[in-house]
Amino acid sequence: MEPVRITYALSEEQFLRASAELWNHRAIGEKGNWILVSAVGLFGLFLIWQDAILGWGPLMLALLVGGLTLSRRFFWRSAYQLAEKYKEAISVVFTDDEIETTTWIKTGSVPYSTFKTFLETDNFILLLIDSKRFSILPKSAVEEGDLERLQGHLAHHLEPERKRWL
Asked: Strands 90-94, 124-128: parallel, antiparallel or unpaired by DSSP?
């Protein structure tokens, strides 16, 4: 199969959007979290209104989940700022045997086996190393004819990431 070359720069906003798309795929996502917070919080308030001391448990759970949901973007923003490779343009070449990368820091190649799975969303292709580490490829950087070849390379070497919820 013919190699696919992609050159791109990843903005902080793209990184945050890609991280959110991964979270939406793996769990119930930010929207689902807020629905859960609202439902559990309202249930807790209802119990408190009914003079049930047990209402404080659901209310505290709702506050905890809400706090974690709000803090997630802070952690993702910190991860972007710590990731040196995103500071300048990145060039990636997908060949039959490996993935070659060139950043302002280094040039190298990695076997496909470095990645566990891949996830294709509307805007990104995410190459997942493990549950916390992944590489982001914005689809906007892929030429129209190259997208099908890239999908072929990934499908040949990696399993697609399965949805864990719903």
From this structure: unpaired
